């Protein structure tokens, strides 16, 4: 009789355990489906069509499934209600899954170049104000003489929300300064959303001017990329979807993002940052940043090398 009771009790606990496990699988499976659906719905709502399937600087559409090197233009814009604004930040990135590295270059917003579609030279950040994303993309392509395969446009006011969504970031600060009531010490510091926005906006108290600001922007973006890739808490994904949906537009599809996450992830461990050398000059009483032709061509060659493009695989004639 006791043996039968022990067996019955054991069987009961096995059924309860199996039920709990089954419920856990059902709940997590349902949540995984929710996450997948939320992700696809979010990506669908942030799509922006600029009227082309590929860059004019390429002969073929880039294929992430084949692990071809790609380029991404990150655009930080200061959009406000009733005003398209300007591209406050332009960062061009090449991602090479074969060499497992990322090349990142900040383009000074005062850089003087031809604005494609306007037929005149002006500050490169004015391209977005004149013709939106398409004109900005084409102008960057012309300036660097490389393709822009994908773009991600971020409202700079949402920067704080993006940093908060990944739980804050850590950066190595090389300059102690105070901005907007907050002091940033030298060394390794932790930033939340509000402090990250302040950290990336200061430039007048930095002897490097806009270059110092660009460096801090790249630091935070690099930290967000790494932190976002390592997120293990599924609870954070809901917050991230909301932030992205409200503040980001892109031509990356869900399939593109899935493929990049699968095939390009290791490249984030080796990020090389480039600086565009030049000098300031006033023309008709307006300040511009002038980039020497040899500097522009040298940087263009480095980016082409990272993209593994040749005359046989891409077209690099001037517009």
From TrEMBL:
InterPro entries: LytR/CpsA/Psr_CW_biosynth (IPR050922), LytR_CpsA_psr (IPR004474), TagU (IPR023734). Belongs to the LytR/CpsA/Psr (LCP) family. Pathway: Cell wall biogenesis. The lineage of its organism: Bacteria, Bacillati, Bacillota, Bacilli, Bacillales. Residues 86-228 form the Cell envelope-related transcriptional attenuator domain. This is Polyisoprenyl-teichoic acid--peptidoglycan teichoic acid transferase TagU. One of its GO terms (cellular component) is plasma membrane. GO terms for biological process: cell wall assembly. May catalyze the final step in cell wall teichoic acid biosynthesis, the transfer of the anionic cell wall polymers (APs) from their lipid-linked precursor to the cell wall peptidoglycan (PG). The keyword Transmembrane applies. Residues 34-319 are extracellular. It is found in: Cell membrane. Its main location: membrane. It is a single-pass type II membrane protein. It is an enzyme of class 2 (transferase). It comes from Metabacillus lacus. It holds the Pfam family LytR_cpsA_psr. Keywords: Cell membrane, Cell wall biogenesis/degradation, Membrane, Signal-anchor, Transferase, Transmembrane, Transmembrane helix. Residues 1-12 are cytoplasmic. GO terms for molecular function: phosphotransferase activity, for other substituted phosphate groups. Its EC number is 2.7.8.-.
């Amino acid at each position: 009789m006791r043996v039968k009771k022990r067996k019955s009790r054991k069987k009961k606990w096995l059924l309860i355990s199996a039920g709990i496990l089954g419920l856990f699988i059902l709940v997590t499976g349902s949540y995984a489906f929710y996450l997948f659906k939320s992700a696809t719905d979010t990506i669908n709502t942030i799509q922006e069509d600029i009227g082309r399937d590929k860059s004019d600087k390429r002969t073929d559409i880039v294929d992430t499934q084949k692990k071809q090197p790609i380029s991404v233009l990150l655009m930080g814009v200061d959009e406000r209600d009733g005003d398209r604004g300007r591209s406050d930040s332009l960062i061009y990135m090449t991602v090479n899954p074969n060499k497992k590295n990322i090349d990142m270059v900040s383009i000074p917003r005062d850089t003087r170049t031809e604005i494609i579609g306007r037929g005149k030279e002006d500050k490169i950040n004015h391209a977005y104000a004149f013709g939106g994303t398409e004109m900005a993309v084409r102008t960057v392509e012309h300036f660097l003489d490389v393709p822009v395969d994908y773009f991600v446009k971020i409202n700079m006011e949402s920067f704080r929300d993006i940093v908060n969504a990944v739980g804050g970031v850590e950066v190595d600060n090389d300059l102690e300064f105070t901005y907007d009531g907050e002091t940033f010490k030298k060394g390794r510091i932790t930033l939340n959303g509000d402090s990250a926005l302040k950290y990336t906006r200061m430039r007048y108290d930095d002897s490097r001017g806009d270059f110092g600001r660009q460096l801090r922007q790249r630091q935070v973006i690099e930290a967000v990329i790494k932190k976002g890739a390592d997120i293990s808490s599924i609870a954070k994904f809901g917050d991230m979807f909301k932030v992205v949906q409200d503040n980001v537009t892109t031509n990356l599809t869900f399939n593109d993002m899935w493929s990049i996450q699968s095939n390009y992830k290791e490249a984030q461990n080796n990020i090389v940052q480039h600086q565009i050398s030049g000098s300031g000059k006033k023309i008709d009483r307006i300040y511009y940043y002038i980039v020497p032709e040899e500097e522009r061509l040298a940087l263009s060659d480095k980016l082409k090398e990272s993209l593994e493009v040749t005359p046989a695989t891409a077209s690099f004639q001037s517009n």
